[in-house]
Amino acid sequence: MSESNNWPAPNPAQAGQSSPSFQGAVLGREPLATFWQRLLGRILDSLNVFVLYLGYVMLVAIVLAATNVSDGDPIVAWLANGGIIAFVALQVYWEGKGGSFFRRGYGAVIVDASTGRPIGTARALLRIVVANFSLLAFGIGFLWMLWDPNNQTWHDKAARSLVVKR
Question: How many structural domains comprise the chain?
Answer without folding.
Answer: 1
